[in-house]
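Pilot study result, target chain (1004 residues):
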Amino acid sequence: MLKKTDIIKKQFSKPVSNQTSPPLWSYSRVSEISHIWRFELVGSVVHHISEYFVNPDEISHLLLIGPRGSAKNIVINGIVKKLKSNDDTLVIRIIENGSVIISYPDFCKQMIDSVMKEYPDKAGFLSKDFQDIHEIKQELIPEKVLEALLSFAGGRKVALLIENIDNIIETLKNFADKYRWNFCELINDKRIFICATASTDIPEIEDDGQWSNKFFNIEYLKPLSFGHSFELLFNNAREGNNWQLTGNLNTPEYFGRVRAMHEFTQGNHWLLQMLYKCLKNNSSNSMESIFLDFVTRLQPYYADQMQQLPKLQKKIVLYHCLVKILNSVNDIARDCLTTPSSLSKQLNELDKKKGIVTRNRIGRSSYYEIRDILFRICYQTDLEKEKKNLMSFLNFLCNFFTGKIMIPKFDDFYRCLKQSPANSKSQPTRSTLKHSGNSQSQILRTTELYFFQKIDSSLSSSWSGDFFKEWDNPEDRKSIIKIIRTLPFPEDKDANVRLANFFIGEGNFEEAQSKVTDAEVTLGKTLSIQMLQTEIQLFRGYFNKAIAPNSTALKEYPNDVRVIASSGLIKIMVGNKAGATEEIEKLKELADDDPVICAIIGYFFSANDMYERAQEYFEKSIELDDSDLFIFEMLGRALCGLNRFSEGISKFQTILEKEPDNWKVKLLVGIAYYYAGEETNAEEVLSHVRDNDPENEVVARFLSLISYYKNDMPAALKHFELVPDDKRKLGLNSGIQGQIKFDRESDEEAIELFRKALEIDKDIIRQTINQIAEYIENGNYETDERYYKVLTEAKYNRNVLLFFRGFEYLQKKKFAKSNKIFEDLLTNDSENQTAMMYQIVSLLGNERCESADAMLKKLDLTTAEISESVITDFMRRTFSTLFVTTAPGSYYIFILNFIEFIENQNLILVFERAIAQVLMDTLKDHSNISEDRLREMENVLQMCMRKCKEVNLSVTIRFLRVAIDKFKKNAKLALLRIPLEERRFFCRELEIDQAVEEKYQLMV
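Predicted structure:
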């Protein structure tokens, strides 16, 4: 059976529409985006409350614990909203900011105030009863308030929601003997459920028998995962119309930046909102400037926390900020000029109650450090040395995480092989050109891939969305151009211009071009001439030829909506989809209340994967003018792009109500059902379409897939019988049948079908080659060997097969065999830079460093169109081979020449990314690598830094030294030499967190 391709999501999951980020101190207004990941918790809390009132003896109250900025108030807001939707629950919400509630009677007064605020029409009598509350004796207030609230509730349940109960408990402790029984009475009343939030643990209400005989269930609010953090930032950028940042977040470099910053924010909602502000204002700046802006914005926040501390605690915290590593109690006491006994009490309060420091036990000793990394960093950045070290680590993280996703995929290698001089006559297909960017931020979206892979509806809409967006046959393209042509056209009395315009409308482009040429002779290059030339090329599909006349018109008439719309369409068609956002802004400024303009803006948004915005403008266009059914079709496609298939299908059905014989739209309905996972409905609709058009190869393809995944191979093949050979688009169907035969181990029949497909188009079975690459990656070499034999017999491109065969041997570390194959490939194609790169790796694996050095001198990556992911992979494999396989000392000359090579080729950043990967890959296998090898690795890295001053490997060398001490010298305290953020990263990447926890309890 076919294997589902491993999907690399473009943006970890589909973004959700939201609001913008909050002001600096607004904890109550953390972006609504953030609480999308708290919905499940809100639902479980509400369910917990309902169970409590059914069985109060068995169900406990609830305490939600999370640090500041973890959106506890968002959860409370959600609970309030859900509970108030039911009339059977009285909701009382207490908001405490640390200074308002001064006593328990004051707390009771807050409950009365809350009820009067939430129920102003029904709670008037409470206002009368308690308007002179100051005249009531304080010790009587709790009893009277509780009695009044329960009387007001009547038969309703009472849900008491208390924010920051830790502050309130601290206040109540001062009056414990006087009011403890009142508080216990409140907690133990079966008619009242309490849901409270706190920043830290509260022993008084967690432990049985202290303040209450009823436990509080504890729910710790988990920080956002990186995927959710990235999604939050991406949504903020999109909803804020920050197109530059949105585009940047789609690049591997910016992905690495955001992933690096996540190491410091640790998924805190509020800190992520602050980070978004910095990215928004400095999206094109360096990582250093963004991070320093981020820290500057946080300094008032942490300074405020520091000011609230007593003097000795303030001194202790400042000491930890400046020292930055774990410190024993004796060391802290000595440097703070106090005794260990008095210090222990302060440290315990800073740890347990205020959550500023954290305690780590190592043996019988206790070591302390700042819990919040950014708290410490805000005080370190004023020190030049510490700032330099911090920036080095930040850059290391950016390089590591960027390099981690820059894993070359099939399309990267395939483009490199096809672009070599020996194959220069073979032009890349349109599908190849459309996806010529970095493949690590994209799915391998060849047309074939859609029909080979079963799409699970739970996956990101990157799959189905791209299908509905990019299934743009010439008729669809012409529909968009026709929409643009309805915009105002400059008046021109010349007969040739009018005739040219007429012929374009009739589809007679040769005659139109002739009339435009005649008109240009007499009129020159007027706006009408330039626009007509642009539209002729667009209709013909010659997008690059449309650029020149459109650019000329745009310079002379920058505010003409028809010219602007054509410019955006050209950018989309040549692959510069993000560039069309400039046209979007211009069109919105000029006429976003015009139905045609709205439709064009919607199309541009859809082309940029911004389906929510596309939906908005398509709907606006339809609201203004619902006569063009093609807008309904584009709206349906956008909704399908959001995985909202039922809504998309309803839009298609609107078209079918007016055009019942629109078979193209019926086909879209069937395909939408297929991607939604409703295969029965899909089969029914597609079969109906086939009855009308039995030779439709698209219908045959989808029906074949449905049968294929039902494991009904005969039916899967039978669907192709009615499709005549001349309609098998580029031989794709033969390729599919060949794949089916191959899966059934009918290799001879597969060879014939593959050969037939290749005779029509030599690129057509690229998905089969993609399977080879996948089998290599997964180590399934047996099936891989069959593929080679079948495709060799089918006479597939020999260079492509040679490359992947050599790559397979390289993966197996059979360097002699891979070297021989790459030599064979270079004999056929001596200028193939990709083959040269992996030939160098093979030579180093064979310890032929001089030959590798000679090959390196021939390598020129400045002219070859090789993706950065392939170059990164080459460097990673090169140095992994040197450090692990090649004999130490034999490669020094090669190293020096390699550093010179990366300087000349401007590849220093790529080199640093590769080295960061090599370091962690090597250390993961530390048990099989000797200490001498690791020492040699350190020498080589220092040699690189001496050779090129621009190369910064200081963090890499520091991690290497820590690893030597820990793994080879068994130094238990080796990790103490690096600060928390470095230690956390080091332990997680090397998967030693749990071991450290169990043995030394080092991690937080």
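One observation from the pilot: Residues 816-999 form one domain. A full batch analysis is planned for the follow-on phase.
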